[in-house]
Specification:
Blueprint (H helix, E strand, L loop, with lengths): L8 H4 L31 E6 L4 E9 L5 E8 L2 E11 L2 E8 L5 E10 L2 E9 L4 E10 L2 E9 L2 E10 L5 E6 L5 E10 L2 E9 L2 E9 L5 E10 L6 E9 L2 E4 L6 E3 L1
Antiparallel strand pairs: 1-2, 1-16, 2-3, 3-4, 4-5, 5-6, 6-7, 7-8, 8-9, 9-10, 10-11, 11-12, 12-13, 13-14, 14-15, 15-16, 17-18
Length: 255
């Protein structure tokens, strides 16, 4: 069986890692990687387990345009790597993932066609491509995708968009057998819930916002195939306060 490398483990801790790694993978920080960024992003994200114990932290840095340029990770109060982001003419070009020893372990390279995302590749520390996604469009929206691993098709998806903004992803194996479904629910422009069902079970992420429509919290639930109830897995909390005095002896925070 081929080993599928998706993303370095700690980076997965900060997005919807329970979902697959194509366009159906929603990263809440994507809004800070676009050409036009509306508002300032969080400077920190804390992850708590089901017992409300803090297990990981991400610290975010941005460029003058408000685009995300670096994410620094800690796990159990120890350095656990980072991700760097590069742009060209406002478009995200690369995500380079480093481990705790500052060694590059993976690189994501994004591909565009006339300014529209057409796919991306994932390479390992030796520069070998280990994964590739290709996307197709209909009515200016992504309508389907194909994942390749070592040049072999390993997964497909199609997506349907509803008039109310919600979407349904149908995920398939290479032989076109259905592998799962992801439903995404919106309240106006804000994603409020994502739900995946596949052979392993059911997974849900709920999203909560403040009065300025900034994402405050994501709560992850899981139910194994033989389980009866949804079980809380972890909670992400985003912090938007700005450090205005970098003096390490006395730090002032402004909401």
């Amino acid at each position: 069986m081929k080993k599928i490398i998706i993303f370095y483990a700690i980076s997965l801790l900060f997005n919807g890692f329970i979902f697959s790694a194509g366009m159906e993978k929603y990263d809440h920080m994507d809004i800070y990687k676009g050409i036009k960024v509306n508002g300032k992003g969080p400077y920190q994200e804390n992850v708590y387990d089901a017992n409300e114990k803090e297990i990981a932290v991400a610290a975010y840095k941005y460029n003058e345009n408000g685009q995300l340029i670096e994410a620094l990770y800690t796990k159990n109060n120890a350095n656990d790597g980072k991700t760097k982001y590069t742009y060209n003419e406002g478009l995200l070009q690369e995500e380079i993932i480093y481990n705790s020893e500052n060694v590059m372990v993976e690189k994501l390279v994004y591909k565009y066609n006339k300014g529209r995302l057409s796919g991306y590749t994932v390479s390992d520390s030796n520069g070998k491509e280990v994964l590739r996604w290709q996307y197709s469009y209909k009515n200016n929206k992504i309508s389907s995708g194909i994942r390749f691993i070592e040049k072999e098709i390993t997964e497909k998806f199609t997506v349907q968009y509803e008039k109310n903004g919600n979407s349904v992803y149908q995920i398939y194996y290479p032989n076109d057998e259905k592998a799962g479904t992801i439903e995404t629910y919106f309240n106006k422009e804000n994603i409020v819930k994502r739900e995946k069902v596949d052979v392993t079970g059911k997974y849900i992420i709920n999203y909560r916002y403040d009065n300025e429509n900034r994402l405050l919290e994501m709560v992850f639930y899981e139910k194994e195939k033989k389980g009866e109830t949804m079980v809380l897995q972890k909670t992400h909390k985003l912090i938007y306060a700005e450090i205005i005095n970098p003096n390490p002896e006395k730090i002032s925070l402004r909401k």
